[in-house]
Amino acid sequence: LTFLIYAVGWKLNPENGIFVLQCIALWISSVFSYLICKQFISNKYIALIGILSFWGYFALVIDEGGLCEEFNLPILMISTYLTTHFLCSKKDEHPPQYAFVYGATIAMSFCFRATNCISVCGAVFVIAILLIKGHHYKNLVLNIVGFLLGFGLFFTPFFVYFAIHGALSDFIWGT
């Protein structure tokens, strides 16, 4: 997936296309970092500290600008926002659309690097426990279906591509 994003960036503009995509990814991550902080802090100016701390952490991690996490982070931040939004709302029913996003996030994260999806897996587990504990079995089944649809929609094309080219073991080993 990283190579696909780099190819798109190169096609957009051979000199600056990847940099533009990195800036877009950083912007999306920053917006969702702010929204996550707003879930816990009502003061918008104090919530901006969340963005500053996110940028500080990102600057420490980015090392040479060639990490897969820079493109995976926006997807992870969207899922984290949806998780915190659900948990802070204290609703009994979890929206299946969120589960679709979680499935897509795990599939894309798996295509970047398998360990990147651990946090979303943990959130999905907690949400499943809450639904089971609250006896919301119908909602749990809808969430499982949404999760599998999201996962399948983003994982299947990569799986099929590598299988057709006889490189499925390379795909699994690479992730």
Your description of this structure?
This protein is mainly α and 175 residues long. The chain has 8 helices and no strands. The protein has helices at 2-12, 17-40, 44-61, 69-89, 96-112, 118-133, 137-164, 168-174. It is flat.
Question: Helix count, per DSSP?
Answer: 8
Give me the count of strands.
0
**What does the average pLDDT come to?**
87
What proportion strand? under 5%
Q: Calculate the terminal CA-CA distance, rounded to whole Å.
A: 10 Å
Counting helices, strands and paired strands, the structural category is mainly alpha
Helix/strand order, N-terminal first:
HHHHHHHH
Give helix % range: over 70%
* Shape estimate: flat
Uncertain stretches of 5 or more adjacent residues:
none
Largest sheet: none
Task: Set down the secondary structure blueprint.
Blueprint: H1 2-12, H2 17-40, H3 44-61, H4 69-89, H5 96-112, H6 118-133, H7 137-164, H8 168-174
Helix pairs in contact: 1-2, 2-3, 2-4, 4-5, 4-6, 5-6, 5-7, 7-8
Task: Offer a quick outline of the entry.
The protein has 175 residues and is an all-alpha fold. 81% of the residues lie in helices and 0% in strands. It has eight helices and no strands.
Keywords summarizing the entry:
flat; 8 helices; 175 residues
